[in-house]
């Protein structure tokens, strides 16, 4: 019974890996680029590394918000694909682009006109704020191409094509790394721009990536392809339904990313070394969190497509098997993360020894609980696949703000416990979330066809 319910045949795992591995590779490349960014910037000093880390934390809120919108829209594209409705796929894609830019606009305005205000939330250190502001001067404009790239990539993956976006991502990462090398320290006669150079490198790479994605759309001619002149041609009821789901999912991602920003503020109270260590641990652990990206793509195809075709039993069976498979992978990757954590001092030689030591301990905490994080997020993917964005909202960002933030905030400001213990307390709340996730998943409110609306 257990084997039949949770373990698939070889064909199931081949298809899962075929869907997941390309996106995992894409995420790995992006994470490697981020790791190299941090390595290059760390050579400028702790303040510069902390400045970029603080800047990126707010930028990630924008990124997650837009991703949330594209994920919600992607569910409709995926289910309409299962229902063989090309017209509605196109309308869903148009809605994705419009909603993505609506989410991006306030972040663009805040970063462009009020960078000091944004950065002062994380720290009062003037040197960190100065470095972060310098970085923002360039990276803010990357919002323009990145928003459209995220919408396009999300739509492509929703059709089951997880490979094509990788080509654009690979080129973008290479361009980013090359220009980081050239502009941060002024190699081969290029101007030495420091953290501003790191931002410029990102900006250039985002425009290159978007250009390649547009070429892929033109060549591949996906069913969701649309003309610019038709961008606002969307059925009002469909737009309203997508907007509702996108709002729940987008706000969930924004609130979740915001909670991570608040946690960073909490951890920063333990000193510059703690803040640098948090940035280092995040860069390295991101190499492993790409598993989440891959399983998200697999869930859209193996669950959402079946829901769109009213094949509910098949969708539920695939969901159970994906949960078991992803947790097994997470246990393995968690062990690897614990093992490689000891190499941090060899990689980040330019940060303080205290920051090196703390980052090693933080990585070991992440590795130990990695399977818990994967279990919770896999259930989140199931809820989204069925359009149950409200339950996903409550379980994800709702849990962070109602449970995690109050607990960590209390221990931050009412005790003097060290950063590592504070971090353990924060991460361990996911054990509580595991119980909540299981209850929500078993209610099966997510087992529905969102394309059937009046």
Describe how the helices and strands are arranged.
Layout: H1 2-6, H2 10-42, H3 46-82, H4 86-113, H5 115-120, H6 126-139, H7 143-158, H8 164-184, H9 195-220, H10 236-268, H11 272-285, H12 290-308, H13 312-340, H14 344-347, H15 353-385, H16 389-413, H17 419-428, H18 430-443
Helix pairs in contact: 2-8, 2-11, 2-12, 3-4, 3-6, 3-7, 3-10, 3-11, 3-12, 4-7, 4-10, 6-9, 7-9, 8-9, 10-16, 11-15, 12-13, 12-15, 13-15, 15-16, 15-17, 15-18, 16-17, 16-18
How would you explain this protein's 3D organization?
This protein is mostly helical. The protein has one domain (about 1-445). The chain has 18 helices and no strands. The protein is globular and about 55 Å long. The chain starts with a helix and ends in an 11-residue tail after the last helix.
Keywords:
single chain, 454 residues, mainly alpha, globular
Give a quick precis of the structure:
This protein has 454 residues and is mainly alpha-helical. The protein is 81% helix and 0% strand.
